[in-house]
Amino acid sequence: MKLSLQITSRNFELTDAIKAEITEKVEKLESFCEQILKCRVVVESPHRHSHDGRLYNVNIDLKVPGTEIVVKREPNEDLYVAIRDSFNAAKRRLEDYLEHLRREVKHHEETPQGKITALFPDKGYGFLTKPDGEEVFFHQNSVLNRNFEKLKLGMKVRFSEEMGTKGPQASSLRVFGD
User: Fold this and answer.
1) Whole-angstrom distance, CA of residue 92 vs CA of residue 112
2) Which of 2, 12, 18, 122 is the most buried (most CB within 10 A)?
């Protein structure tokens, strides 16, 4: 176990079997999510009323990069059920955390770049050349941030590429250097 684990009990003594059960559950969480840095488990038996049986609370505090996950469940008369329910809830919270991380890290392809290498103003189109030497057709309607008539050879552009009827073409083209 790589993470720091602290097990605490309140109002009663934990047996070695209970400590082993908690340690096993923490190891399962760690194998599910290697990003857990620290885990604190507090098992308590609140003072009981004379007409009720003994109840157990199992609270879990997990530290992961960027946040803390706290699990507090309803008390249960069976300590093993209270442990199981709390660790199941912790796993669900970790799943939410990991899903949030996956949504945060978006992978965007870099927008292709090129230079304008041919212009046919009377026909309303031109060609740009990508760094690998491939030529891409563009129509005057695909130019977004300039007037087609003001384009010059050698201007640097970013564009979205799609396959046209006669080969690759730029569907949107932005000039970013003169």
Assistant:
1) 40
2) 18
> Is beta strand 167-177 parallel, antiparallel or unpaired with respect to 38-44?
unpaired
Domain of residue 170, CATH code: 2.40.50.140
Q: What distance in Å separates the CA atoms of residue 126 and residue 136, rounded to the nearest whole number? A: 9
pLDDT digits (tens, 9 = 90+) for 78-134: 999 999 999 999 999 999 888 888 776 555 567 789 999 999 999 999 999 999 999
Q: Which helix (H) or strand (E) holds 21?
A: helix 16-32
Task: List the domain range (segments joined by +) for residue 10.
Answer: 4-104
Query: What is the rounded distance in angstroms from the CA atom of residue 71 to the CA atom of residue 95?
Result: 13
Asked if residues 152 and 115 have their Cβ atoms less than 8 Å apart, the reply is no
Cβ-contact 56, 75 below 8 angstroms: yes
Question: Which residue type occupies 126?
Answer: G
Residues 6+ apart with CB under 8 A from 8: 40, 41, 42, 43
Choosing from 74, 104, 134, the residue where a domain stops is: 104
Detail the DSSP E strand segments found in 27-110.
38-44, 57-64, 67-71
